[in-house]
Amino acid sequence: MSHKIVSKRQLGEEVFWARIEAPLIARARKPGQFIILSINNDYSERIPLTIAGADAAEGMIELIWQKVGKTTAELADLREGQSIANISGPLGTPTHIDNFGTCVCVGGGIGAAPLLPIATALKAAGNTVLTILGFRSKDRLILETEFAAISDELIVTSDDGSYGRKALVTEPLKELCERDPKPAQAFVIGPTVMMKFCCEATRQYAVPTQVSLNTIMVDGTGMCGGCRVEIDGKPKFVCVDGPEFDGHLVNFDLMMKRMNAYKKQEQAARAAYEKHRCKIGLDE
Amino acid sequence: MQLTRSTGAKSGWTNDRSDRCAQGGFSAHALLPFDARWTRGLRTHPTGSRTVRDEERQQQLQELLAKQAAGELKPKDRFAIAPQAMPEQDPSVRRCNVSEVALGYTKMQARLEAMRCLQCKTAPCVQGCPVQIRIRDFVTAIAQGNYPEALDIIKENSLLPAVCGRVCPQEVQCQAKCTVGLKFKDVEKAVSIGRLERFVADLDHGEGAVPSVAPATGKKVAIIGSGPGGIVAAADTRRAGHDVTVFEAFHKPGGVMVYGIPEFRLPKAIVEEEIETLRKMGVEIVTNFIVGRTRTVDQLMTEDGFDAVYIGVGAGLPSFMGIEGESLVGVYSANEYLTRANLMKAYEFGKGADTPIAASKRVAVVGGGNVAMDAARTAVRLGAEKVYLIYRRTEKEMPARVEEVHHAQQEGIEFHLLQSPKRVIGDENEHVKAVECLRYELGEPDDSGRRRPVAIEGSEFEIELDTVIIAIGNQANPLMRQTTPGLEFNKWGNIVVDENCKTSMEGVYAGGDIVLGAATVILAMGQGRIAAAGINTYLAGK
Ligand SMILES: Cc1cc2nc3c(=O)[nH]c(=O)nc-3n(C[C@H](O)[C@H](O)[C@H](O)COP(=O)(O)OP(=O)(O)OC[C@H]3O[C@@H](n4cnc5c(N)ncnc54)[C@H](O)[C@@H]3O)c2cc1C
Ligand code: SF4
Ligand code: FES
User: Interface pTM (ipTM) of the complex?
Assistant: First the structure.
């Protein structure tokens, strides 16, 4: 069964959104879960992407991704009406949603996408939702209106000051943690280094912090162990034990190294793809 | 052997093949492109003298048959026939390709090998076979040149002879019991039952050989997992006329036979053919469907109308050693390494395939089973210059098939026996740079009867490496347990079943590695068959 892309648009520099037919996954998924897809059957790689939204009645899931390696670039070149050969899921343990009181949700870059369903569910569960979204620059801003609709307070930052407040997300995060009463729970999703510094910040204020890890994966069912990270000194599999973990226990430094294991190969593959793409005239 | 690779990057495997393999004997086989489909009956043997030898063999066979016809063939004549060696790709050539290593008997070899069988009245070999194939009878049929009959006999008990002939540990099963081997006090001189099984299976081109299906019963059966157990359970329940759907988590069906066991040992085309047969029988195969996540067992039965379920999800949770440094970059589980290489075709990275794998130069594989041999031999084929196999006991205790151990040694893998890693050491980039090992000696026998390895204190030493592959076994994947309340598991996380492979849940059967712990293809197949019989009986009374 292949999965048709029913609509697709570009959200920002290198960032794309698509709505895709996947009725079984749409029906089963819960916030915090992800899928693994491969574009074709035989030679494509399998990559994990968080489910950014779903419509069970219509059998649709929404994915948001940033062009990084070859597969995400190829995905960005697919058009409406074209299909993805394999999507399996929903994978991972769903987010624990509860009425915590006040929650801080921090999304960095593309991390805003997986954060949205969690923030939405937190709001629906009765929490006061304070959101911080950080982007490199204005052209990478995504999902601002969507978050505005479900947040009690929304702070947008950019690294270069081209939009919102010129700051790293840790700055407003510390401010929110200093409020009285301090937030009951923080949810942080974004680049690994950002999650690391956010966790260092919330640790100072003893605010429990959930992070969602996006490691390299193969099967997504616990079979290979390629996704493992060190949590409190012990190996855990992100695809089954996660993707969410207590951020204060994650060994982020090791995780970053593991994430870069294939960096050279990825870059070479993407470069080769872009070259080929030019030749066949996909670059309009 | 000193090997050179032209580039550090995994850019051109084919490019550096010439210098890596120049010293090897030339073979047309080596020139096959990697995606070359293995075709039955279309194999090139490396020995040019094959036809000449076959003429000699034919003459020998004629003489033996004439003697037999005259009623003069004695056991001593049979003992005098040399055990037939399996034609193989030359080690220096096969190091550089992923084509099958063992090439299969010629007809003359098969018939001569079959003539070695004494046709024992008690057929002890049958007792050694987990599914009691009538071995004596099929071997006799081969000796007579009656191949279709031989295959029919095998298929009474085994649905996947082309697979089992290749991967069964015959030396501890049927061949261990064979009178001929006992007579020579050498199991390697037993009748080569596995090779004969493979030989007749390979002659069968699968043309039109689709098993017949009984009239529709209107009952629905779900098979979870498409490994050998699932394939057999699907075939047997479908034959009874049920509407059968196989659900597979991966994007390709076949289980360990496609993601674990490498092409050079079990060509994917064989497994594909078996899956195709299921499709032709009308079995629906749904991939990318993870039972427990996409739908639960309960949902399949209460909402989706399935009347019975077979759970054959395999072991599927790699064991790690729990030592320091096991999460460093460059440490793989064998499952990950083999999945990248096999299923995802990482050996063609940059040449069509998108999945990368480490460009390793010095690799250590930890373990002594089939999985360890497969990982080590795959590392060789991916271009590693030095591959070590580190095992806590001695070669005698290795659980791997003897043939694979031999093949690994021939391919230049260096065995480090009575050693085990104590920690993995990383460089400043958290990348593996060495393992620290301890030496061991064998102490008293443990529960399994094997002598327990005991670490020698103060015997630490280091081996420099860039990749470590952990192949010390698989445990039960907890997903089924977590998502199927009402299903009983033992303390190791394996599903508890009765003698009919029935679980604690009505209408739910299970078999293979999820029940037995990491076991074998033939045992999984056997349980798939028992479970299917159970399901058929259950549904007949429903
Ligand atoms: C590298 C390697 C080499 C081996 N070599 C040999 C050998 O030489 N000889 C031998 O006899 N045995 C060998 N074995 C063992 C043998 O392969 C297994 O015992 C056998 O395959 C088990 O069969 P199974 O039916 O239990 O299913 P498996 O082959 O384990 O397949 C299970 C299938 O279920 C799927 N699955 C898992 N969870 C779910 C889910 N929740 N929903 C849907 N599908 C799911 C998996 O993706 C998989 O495809 C080897 C194993 C490995 C790993
Ligand atoms: S035990 Fe050996 S010799 Fe006897 S019937 Fe079996 S295969 Fe033939
Ligand atoms: S991706 Fe293989 S175990 Fe998590």
Answer: 0.89
